Amino acid sequence: HVQLVESGGGMVQPGGSLRLSCAASGNTYGTKCMGWFRQAPGKERDWVAIITTNGDRTYYVDSVKGRFTISQGNAKNTVYLQMNNVKPEDTGMYYCAAQGGLYCQIRASKFGNWGQGTQVTVS
Question: Smallest Cα–Cα separation from 98: which of 37, 44, 8?
């Protein structure tokens, strides 16, 4: 089991920046990718950005391309989401998640470990 703890959320004005962090601990061996997901009030949880643990691939939902960057720390047990030029529609609870298995799949259902989330409000 992998424990994930998010931090860095808060309130930011449109056009501003925010950096989210996710610290992973526990049995991280075998993790194939980690991702950030967002859940707005009254909506389903959707993926925002995903990175493979070897760092060779990143994936972004179209609405954040060119504005958000997902990256790993040197020890690869920390994942960041740099959010630039944020918009009101970026508001939501942001969750960090980890996926094991043979290869990374871009589906929330394939992520078996989740953090508690950190709130981001753009207003």
Answer: 37
Strands 45-52 and 58-60: antiparallel
Using a 10 angstrom Cβ sphere, with 0-12 exposed, 13-18 middle and 19 or more buried, the burial of residue 43 is exposed
Position 34, amino acid: M
Say if residues 122 and 10 touch (Cβ distance below 8 Å): no
68-72 sheet: strands from edge to edge = 2-7, 18-26, 78-83, 68-72
Q: What's the pLDDT tens digit per position in 50-92?
A: 999 887 899 999 999 999 999 998 777 899 999 999 999 999 9
**Tokens for 46?**
């959707």
